[in-house]
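Contributing: when you submit paired examples, paste them exactly as shown. First protein:
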Amino acid sequence: MSTAVLAPDRSALVEQTGTRHNLMSAYTRLLGWPLIIKGSAVMLPAHLGIVGLSLRAGVGGEVNTVIERFGHHSPVISVPGTPTRWTFLTDDDDCTPGSIPFGVDLLAGRAHRIPLPPTDLDGDYVRWVNAPDPSRPIAGLSQVLAAVNQVVRPRRAR
């Protein structure tokens, strides 16, 4: 069986032979992420230091550009569905979000589990848009929310 695991010397996901257990071990060892495997799903609990911001993929592309322009790094996953959504993984930097724009969901707290690649959701797979990079810190929730607001607020004014 072929699964994707993180290469320790680069951020890109590479194909290696292994099992979901090996993948979970790589995520935990290289990134320090505590994960849950449930059936064919690899899930990140959203209450142990990492949270997610989920939004439409089209807006997500613009947000990702702003985050990179700020010099930050946020791993991003593409979650299949109608519409496809991107989830930005962020450090829970104790930010108390004031107002989250319409169409943006904060995935935080014990009730939320974020699917990670290669989770199969009804025959379509969660995939990395920006793979995590063990050598770079993950942007904080406040930084990613600032990027979201920079993109979304001007769109509303149009």
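Second protein:
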Amino acid sequence: MTVGEIKTKTLHEMREYASGGEAISDTDNKDYLLSVVPLINLFQNEIATQQNAIYATYPIAQNNPENQLGTSWYEGLVHSSEDISYSATGSQAYSFQVCGTATVYIEEETAEDTWTTLDTISHTDSTGYTTYKDIITASDIENDIRIRFSGSYRYQYRYVALFAEAFPDDDSVPPYLPAVPYDLPTTFFRLDRVDWTHQNGIMENYAAYRFETYGKSSKRIYLPYSTSGEVNVHYYAYPTFITEPSASDLTTQDDTVLDLPDEYEPTLVHRISAALLRDEEPYLADTFNNEYFVGMNAHIGNRPQDNGIETPINTSNW
């Protein structure tokens, strides 16, 4: 169903589509038409959240590189007065976390005991750890690379990694963390389940994730760094917000397709009609509201199941 279809059917329900055998002009119905899209946004959200009406799947493809420094997750490492270095041969990317006033160098050994600085990270924030990651462009892929934690102050660092694999840019470098965060779609409403397809193709229900959501502003899932394969997050969704038309162009959103399944169209039309007639025709508005609740009750027990997989993402989307 589209915005234009909802507008037309709402006017029909309200008996405002035609009069005396002639269609009522958009100019005469302008107050109604300007209100329809805001009411669509309000009531399709109401229907979607009360009915779990919109079902979606968010796939995450993860296959993280090995750390050349090993796989131990060292917490609370401290730099005090002396420099601390971690090195490997042929590294092409790095990742680490730091907290406090620190200077960290990414360096290449261009000759024996001669180190050339490729990158310098100056960090001053002490409110929790910050992740730094980037690609390394060395003069010779066979040279040793090191991360050198330096500076004049005591600070903490952890999760140090060097990767031999090449990445196209810093966004593509995975953060070396025990639990890797993925931002979920802004339309995420409520979690249904998570499943995991192994690299050998076997699928199973998956429970080794951590999940956080703070209203509609922050929704995130954390996967263990070692998990390889595709993890599918199945969830109930909010509908996409529809931009309201201007008074000079009432039809600009008419072709926009709503996220609600088509079977909810009469229910949505009744709810919008009731809101538009609440002051002018309260008896008729009550009738439409009653039809709305009848429709809502009829949909209980007939809620959607998994309706397909969206385009997969990969670990370049951090």
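If you have annotations for the second protein, write them as plain sentences, like these:
The longest helix spans residues 30-51.
The CA atoms of residues 41 and 242 lie 6 Å apart.
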